[in-house]
Amino acid sequence: MRNRVAxxxxxxxxxxxxxxxxxxxxxxxxxxxxxxxxxxxxxxxxALGTELKRYIRAGSGTTVVADPKAxxxxxxxxxxxxxxxxxxxxxxxxxxxxxxxYKLRFxxxxxxxxxxxxxTDLVLKREISFNExxxxxxxxxxxxxxxxxxxxxxxxxxxxxxxxxxA
Length: 167
Description:
- By secondary structure, the chain is of the alpha/beta class.
- The chain has three helices and five strands, in the order αβαββββα.
- The protein has helices at about 1-20, 45-60, 135-165; strands at about 35-40, 65, 75-90, 95-110, 115-130.
- It has a five-stranded mixed β-sheet with strand order 2-1-3-4-5, covered by helices on one side.
- Helix 2 crosses helix 3 (about 135-165).
- The protein is flat and about 60 Å long.
- The N and C termini lie far apart (about 55 Å).
- The model has no long low-confidence stretch (mean pLDDT about 85).
């Protein structure tokens, strides 16, 4: 009797989720890229470029090419920077909080140099507390936050690339 009730509840949950349009992020094949080939203007050693290429290859029918002349679209990174600023100080004048910034400026051009997406600035900010007795742990936390911001940037770039099809 319990097995039947559990099976009915699981079936009900599955039907409810499928009926509401729920879909995992990235599970849509051909995530709406309006072009067949794209060139990513980042070095092979760039972590941002590697992650962006991986998401494009996995989530759409778009091919990442090594030659910008063979691509329908060229994503050109104009600037990329990571910055750290002091947010607050304690009563002894020591740093208590930092703000981490990840800034990216890029544009997308099409065949013949036609601009598909004007230069776009993306700025992400995260706040992190600082403790002198936990310097190594805070450095690792900072690395994790920068990686998280990089993943957010990749998702924002992909959404902007997908939106180009409506233009």
